[in-house]
């Protein structure tokens, strides 16, 4: 192979390595003009991602550690993050974020979207998700049936009336306090170690077979345990 051809091949490989994966993305519904704060993490070092809102585009390089908080001014009613983001945090934007669509980032492993003005959350395509933090939103329902790898769930202080974790057999940490849940079936959650379920409408909860559960991490109020 000639030196010129080798240089061309290396150049193409380098460009491919540095390019943003535009087929993988997360879209936020936002209020135009709002300041949106985000944090990112990838599986690999030197991963390029692109943040797009309206005509504004920002490209940055991230690694396998969480970035510091990055602030973006919404130039439209959507903000989209393109690239191989494995962990995504859009929390504490309050009324600035009104929706999260992660369906085009199926390999996503961790989603933190707490303290936003979100009324629904569809994570059915995110089958690799292991951590979900969606507390202090306005969620009335949460479908976790496709998220079988989930190990940590924080959905406290929403408006949930029910919570089905029967498919989440790897779940080890669950915080659902401050909802309106009337019953909670933990039969299949044999890995559960920490449970916070007070300030709900639960009157009876069977934890008799939860041998891994740490009593000091079992928080409840006016609930009868079998």
Q: Any chance you could write out the topology, listing elements then pairs?
A:
Layout lengths: L2 H16 L6 E6 L4 E7 L5 E7 L2 E7 L7 E4 L4 E5 L4 E3 L7 E5 L8 E3 L18 E3 L18 E3 L18 E3 L18 E3 L7 E2 L12 E2 L4 E2 L1
Parallel strand pairs: 7-9, 9-10, 10-11, 11-12, 12-13, 13-15, 14-16
Antiparallel strand pairs: 1-6, 1-8, 2-5, 2-7, 3-4, 3-6
- What is the radius of gyration? 21 Å
Helix count equals: 1
Main sheet characteristics? 9 strands, mixed
What topology, given as strand order, has the largest sheet? 5-2-7-9-10-11-12-13-15
> Span between N and C termini?
74 Å
As a percent range, the share of helical residues equals under 10%
Secondary structural class? mainly beta
Shape: globular
Global mean pLDDT: 89
Number of strands: 16
Beta-strand content? 25-35%
> Which regions contain 5 or more consecutive residues with pLDDT less than 50?
4-10, 12-16, 222-226
Order of helices and strands: HEEEEEEEEEEEEEEEE
């Amino acid at each position: 192979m000639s030196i010129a051809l080798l240089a061309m091949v290396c150049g193409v490989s380098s460009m491919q390595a540095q390019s943003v994966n535009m087929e993988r993305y997360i879209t936020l519904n936002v209020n135009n003009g709002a300041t949106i704060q985000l944090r990112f993490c990838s599986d690999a070092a030197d991963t390029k991602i692109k943040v797009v809102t309206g005509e504004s585009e920002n490209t940055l390089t991230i690694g396998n550690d969480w970035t510091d908080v990055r602030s973006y001014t919404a130039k439209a009613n959507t903000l989209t993050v393109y690239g191989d983001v494995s962990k995504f945090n859009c929390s504490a934007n309050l009324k600035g974020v009104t929706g999260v669509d992660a369906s085009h980032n199926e390999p996503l492993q961790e989603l933190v979207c707490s303290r936003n003005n979100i009324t629904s959350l569809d994570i059915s395509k995110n089958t690799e998700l292991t951590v979900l933090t969606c507390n202090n939103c306005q969620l009335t329902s949460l479908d976790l049936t496709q998220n079988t790898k989930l190990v940590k769930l924080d959905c406290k202080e929403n408006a949930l009336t029910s919570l089905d974790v029967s498919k989440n057999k790897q779940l080890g940490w669950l915080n659902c306090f401050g909802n309106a849940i009337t019953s909670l079936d933990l039969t299949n959650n044999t890995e559960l170690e920490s449970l916070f379920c007070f300030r709900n409408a639960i009157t009876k909860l069977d934890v008799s077979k939860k041998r891994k559960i740490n009593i000091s991490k079992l928080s409840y109020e006016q609930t009868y345990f079998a």
